[in-house]
């Protein structure tokens, strides 16, 4: 679905108390990879707990267009894959909508094939840089034709035999790391990816699960060298997708901020490359009990018992950014209600997300009465415990979400704790990653409604 034409403004009102037990939908990163690797592997892959957001469904549609058979039986997605090296040329452009992970990883997956594939997306995705993936693909012999500035639409055509490369990822990006590794699946010999800062490791773990020959060496300084042997056999797997820690951020922060709240969030992925927000909130004095820690499908999972808390501002170190890269908008909202100042460092990658999130967050906070400073790669927020004066009297000010689901959800959460309502210009975009958000928050006692009038 292409968003943008039909915005659905929404407004969130101060809540009395949030209470209940919820189960967060499946992790977006793992869901994308489940469709991709299941579609590529030989034999059958069965997936439970898949996130059925628009982003992931776009990846499923792309895998279908390249030969995978995908269907759903009861609560299970069943994929009959094509076999590694056997993707078919898609007949038309692959439309990824809003999904950066979907398009960047799939460009890696199919870009090294000796046929043409074309990639398109919505206005947000078409404004995002693709050069970070196209550059290593060019080194592998892929011919690239792209809109100016290496933006979508992009057409790729791989060489007869792709060149396996040794590539150091220039920025902290799991998408770039993954795209190169996936291109390496169709190249002879060893593809090597070096990452100086560890990012989410779902690609490495899941590829090993599917039978890929992949090894990781971590040097004493933390630099990781990942080696993949190309053209190996991949076998279908059974996957149970754990709950998304990035979606968890919204009810989690809401429960901390709304006085008297008591919420249990079940089945949350606790992979250490994803738990930076929990670490930070605990430092701020949050009451988050990590209950029933366990292993599920090779990943750490736990339930979170969250109680309303008085938060105190902290300095968030730049090194933590990769483990909470999608959580800064939610953290910034938490910081708006904390005692004192919260300083977030190392945020340069926020500028190239679904929106320029650093600017979108700072602008939205200021619009709702929060004292904050936007630096080149930092955000400083001075909080108002209790939220008096925050929000927009008579709901007149409207936050611009820029087709960014996390901006929409963050500011709706803000409205649950601010003195005045908080409005966003669009809540329809939330369905890209968390279609259950509105109902789940209402079930906990939140009052969020769509507005009739256009923003
Ligand atoms: C993702 C990696 C991150 C993250 C995105 C999902 C992934 O992007 O922001 O939501 O699944 O690999 P970057 O690689 O651009 O940091």
**Class per helix and strand makeup:** alpha/beta
DSSP summary, beta strand count: 24
Radius of gyration in whole Å, from Cα?
21 Å
Low-confidence stretches: none
Provide an overview of this structure.
With 455 residues, the protein is of the alpha/beta class. The protein has helices at 28-40, 54-65, 100-111, 123-126, 131-139, 174-184, 202-209, 245-257, 276-283, 328-335, 357-367, 405-417, 437-443; strands at 10-13, 19-23, 44-48, 69-73, 76-80, 94-95, 116-120, 143-147, 151-157, 166-168, 190-195, 214-218, 224-229, 238-240, 262-269, 287-296, 299-307, 315-316, 341-344, 371-374, 379-382, 398-399, 422-424, 447-450. Helix 8 (245-257) packs parallel to helix 12. Strand 10, helix 6 (174-184) and strand 11 form a beta-alpha-beta unit. The strands form six sheets. The protein has a four-stranded mixed β-sheet. Strands 2-15-17-16 form a four-stranded mixed β-sheet.
Salient structural properties:
455 residues; four-stranded mixed sheet; alpha/beta; 28% helix; 13 helices; binds shikimate-3-phosphate
Summary of the model, kept short:
The chain contains 13 helices and 24 strands. The chain has 455 residues and is of the alpha/beta class. A four-stranded mixed sheet has the order 22-23-1-24.
């Amino acid at each position: 679905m292409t968003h943008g034409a039909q915005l659905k403004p929404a407004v969130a009102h101060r809540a009395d108390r949030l209470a209940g037990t919820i189960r967060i939908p499946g992790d977006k990163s793992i869901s994308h990879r489940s469709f991709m690797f299941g579609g590529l592997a030989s034999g059958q892959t069965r997936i439970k707990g898949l996130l059925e957001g628009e982003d992931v469904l776009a990846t499923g549609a792309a895998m279908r267009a390249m030969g995978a058979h995908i269907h759903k039986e009861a609560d299970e997605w069943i994929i009959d894959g094509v076999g590694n090296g056997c993707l078919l040329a898609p007949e038309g452009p692959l439309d990824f909508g809003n999904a950066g992970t979907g398009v960047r990883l799939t460009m890696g997956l199919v870009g090294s094939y000796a046929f043409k594939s074309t990639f398109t997306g919505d206005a947000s995705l078409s404004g995002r840089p693709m050069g970070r993936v196209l550059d290593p693909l060019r080194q592998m012999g892929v011919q690239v034709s792209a809109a100016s500035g290496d933006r979508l639409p992009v057409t790729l055509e791989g060489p007869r035999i792709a060149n396996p490369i040794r590539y150091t990822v220039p920025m902290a990006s799991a998408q770039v790391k993954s795209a190169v590794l996936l291109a390496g699946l169709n190249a002879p010999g060893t593809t090597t990816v070096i990452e100086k800062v560890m990012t989410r490791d779902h690609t490495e773990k899941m590829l090993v699960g599917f039978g890929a020959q992949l090894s990781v060496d971590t040097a004493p300084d933390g630099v990781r060298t990942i080696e993949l042997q190309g053209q190996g056999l991949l076998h279908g797997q059974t996957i149970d997708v754990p709950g998304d820690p990035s979606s968890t951020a919204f009810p989690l922060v809401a429960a901390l901020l709304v006085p008297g709240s008591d919420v249990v969030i079940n089945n949350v992925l606790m992979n250490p490359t994803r738990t930076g927000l929990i670490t930070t909130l605990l430092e701020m004095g949050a009451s988050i009990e990590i209950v029933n820690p366990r292993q599920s499908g090779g990943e750490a999972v736990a339930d979170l018992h969250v109680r309303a808390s008085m938060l105190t501002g902290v300095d968030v170190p730049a090194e933590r950014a990769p483990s909470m890269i999608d959580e800064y908008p939610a953290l910034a909202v938490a910081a708006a209600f904390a005692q004192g100042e919260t300083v977030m460092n190392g945020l340069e990658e926020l500028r190239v997300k679904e929106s320029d999130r650093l600017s979108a967050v700072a602008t939205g906070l200021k619009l709702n009465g929060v004292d904050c400073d936007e630096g080149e790669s930092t955000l400083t927020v001075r909080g108002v415990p209790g939220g008096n004066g925050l929000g927009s009297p008579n709901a007149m000010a409207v936050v611009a979400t820029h087709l960014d689901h996390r901006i929409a959800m963050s500011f709706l959460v803000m409205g649950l704790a601010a003195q005045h309502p908080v409005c966003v210009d669009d809540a329809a975009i939330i369905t890209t990653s968390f279609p259950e958000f509105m109902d789940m928050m209402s079930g906990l006692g939140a009052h969020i409604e769509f507005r009739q009038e256009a923003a």
